[in-house]
Specification:
2 copies of one chain form a homodimer. With about 200 residues, the first copy, chain A, is an all-alpha fold. Chain A is built from 9 helices and no strands.
Chain lengths: ~200, ~200
């Protein structure tokens, strides 16, 4: 038999595919099982019901999303910040250091679909709020590290404002055809130029 | 008997309520009929199927959203722009000229739920793209009217960047608990200060 972890991974990948194809409303255990090449019974062996499966999927997607966002620690904080702006506005497929563009697009879309459930689901909303707070702290840490000493009081403000812009870019990219995100991208970089006050 | 238009309005209002309570995935004709106080047969008299009903609902919500966004023509363009920033970041309930806060919150949430369907549904995505383009033109018209003559080449850029920030604010407000949108709000106003170059 197959390892349980392997089955879970297959199920999660299948949810990703079914979600992009049919949306949340079209997400059935039957479709997930067909996509994963498993019996429905095998899915119910790992997940008590559809809600249980979908909340596991929320965690799975948040994990992928966090891994994409939290960059390698060796790189210059300013470069990491600027790359995050580019990823939000250009998409991973066009950002300079994209490693796996196809998967990246899938993860962004899945994250947005899952996140949109938070509009009516309090459990999702609380979890999304935690993740947003982690992302905000990460952006603030990078901003603080990239700033000279005189400006660091401003780091939280700058990071929080950038986060709103990035949320807008992700949302526009996943729900409209070819939105023009170049003005936001250029303004975000200019905003960093003004606030970092770095010498280089 | 009741006027058809009246029934349609009742059905649309019922979809709004069911959507906020159960999300897209929980939206059934049965629930909509119960909420509207109608028989299912009466709903099928007006709509051929659930997809037909939901696409009508998309148009209904976009109409409400546009009416909220497109302000009275008598007001100063700069004031209209600044109020739109405040509506996006504070919510209609806290923006200065809110007329009907409860309905406004409902409409924003419904718009966001419907818009999130665009991630996997091309028909929704095309329609959302048209509405975004109308909103962008409206913002650009206001920006151009609020600018002095020397700066007007910049109006499209400024309007498009503001639109991304506003999309982020709407998205964060509807999917997270009490996100801090004050930095984006203050930066958007400061951005207008720099770009409008108005005397007052």
């Amino acid at each position: 038999g197959e390892e349980p972890d392997n089955t879970r991974e297959r199920v999660m990948r299948a949810v990703l595919v079914v979600l992009r194809r049919h949306g949340y409303a079209g997400l059935s255990i039957k479709r997930i099982a067909d996509e994963a090449g498993l019996e429905k019974a095998s899915i119910y062996h790992h997940y008590s019901d559809k809600d249980d499966l979908l909340f596991s999927f929320l965690e799975f997607v948040l994990g992928l999303f966090e891994r994409e966002i939290i960059q390698q620690p060796g790189r210059k904080p300013e470069d990491q910040l600027r790359e995050l702006i580019d990823r939000a506005t250009l998409g991973a497929e066009r950002a300079s250091t994209a490693r796996n563009p196809e998967r990246a697009g899938t993860v962004t879309e899945a994250f947005m679909i899952v996140r949109s459930q938070a509009i009516h689901d309090r459990q999702y909303r609380d979890r999304i709020t935690e993740v947003d707070e982690q992302l905000r702290e990460h952006l603030a840490d990078l901003t603080r590290a990239a700033m000279d000493d005189q400006r660091q009081d401003n780091a939280d403000h700058v990071a929080t404002s950038l986060q709103t812009m990035m949320a807008g870019a992700f949302f526009q990219r996943t729900t409209a055809v070819d939105p023009n995100l170049d003005p936001a991208r250029r303004d975000a970089h200019a905003y960093l130029d003004r606030h970092l006050g770095a010498e280089d």
